[in-house]
Amino acid sequence: MDVTNLQVGMIAHLQWKSKLSDFFYGVEELTLADVPDHTHCDFGKLLYGTVMQEFSDFSELSTLERVHKEVHEDIKQFIQMPLEARKGAAGKQALEQFKKKCDNLVAMMERLEAKAKLK
């Protein structure tokens, strides 16, 4: 596996943390059209293209797949959240939970990358 593709996926998901923060504070506008499906983003293409087969022995694979899908769903829900809710406690909590989930996803990707380098 080309770990460069995996690194691109990690960077893209970290950038979403920044994008959602900017969206939260009104610096950036986002629509649902800006959010690719979890199977069509760079990492999703890699995950469903080769990773699932090549790393079927990776113990976190099902968790990685689930969390990756949840990250995309969370982004969509956050974008659809009414402005009042987004600016209030619910929005702040949703943003913080998203950031933690995104960090968890990237940590799993890093472990997968380390395993890929050993192959």
Automatic annotation (TrEMBL):
Q: Which UniProt keywords apply?
A: Receptor
Instruction: Tell me which Gene3D superfamilies the record gives.
Output: Aspartate receptor, ligand-binding domain
The species is: Candidatus Electrothrix aarhusensis
Domain Chemoreceptor zinc-binding: residue ranges: 13-78
Q: Give one Pfam family, short name only.
A: CZB
Query: What's the domain of life for this entry?
Result: Bacteria
Q: Under which name does UniProt file this protein?
A: Chemoreceptor zinc-binding domain-containing protein
InterPro entries, per database record: Chemoreceptor_zinc-bind_dom
